[in-house]
Amino acid sequence: MTESRKNNSWLKPALEFGPLVLFFVVFMRFRDRTFTLGGTEYTGFIVATLVFIPVLVLSTLALWRLTGRLSPMQIATLVLVVVFGGLSVWLNDPKFFKMKPTIIYLIFAGLLGLSLILRRNWLELVMSEALPMTAEGWRVLSGRMTVLFLGLAGANEIVWRTMSETAWVNFKTFGLTIIMVVFFVLNAKLFERHALPKDAD
């Protein structure tokens, strides 16, 4: 393995998860403090959001430079973070940033649901390199992920509306990631059953 490949093996996940980890660290460090800028008081949550937005922009640009492309989810996440995170900072209201995951998950649930209705494997276009499967496998996975995204959207709404900011930050940083990992682990049999035969090469 070349040196560049070794670097890419850790650099890509660092760029993908680094901004979220930084948001968590900044929030936990300043969650009990307020900052006055221009005569307006800002909570630690707003400060963490203010740090998160430019870092995510820079890391996404670095990912694009590193890999040569961005997935639809990365692009949608970047746009919604800039829009809703920007609104939270501009209006000094955390709820806009907290609503962002709900909107992302509803968008993807809608797209996957539409792909099933139109009998198109849009999910395959995004994930085929990582998970080579038959058309039937992609159809089943699309249906399951539609339900998953709807569930995550509902869970995010419940958490941010009924629990503390710390609970929501923990849910966003760790809970959502763990749920996604568990989902793919539970679907291991599906991937195995519908896997395409590997090339001789």
From TrEMBL:
Membrane topology of the entry: Multi-pass membrane protein
Transmembrane regions: 14-30, 42-64, 70-91, 103-122, 142-160, 167-186
Pfam families cross-referenced by the UniProt entry: IspA
Subcellular location: Cell inner membrane
Cited InterPro entries: YciB
Chief site of localization: membrane
Keywords, sorted A to Z: Cell inner membrane, Cell membrane, Membrane, Transmembrane, Transmembrane helix
Family of the protein in this entry: Belongs to the YciB family.
Matching PANTHER family: INNER MEMBRANE-SPANNING PROTEIN YCIB, INTRACELLULAR SEPTATION PROTEIN A-RELATED
Function: Plays a role in cell envelope biogenesis, maintenance of cell envelope integrity and membrane homeostasis.
UniProt name for this protein: Inner membrane-spanning protein YciB
Organism whose genome encodes this protein: Paracoccus aurantius
Lineage: Bacteria, Pseudomonadati, Pseudomonadota, Alphaproteobacteria, Rhodobacterales
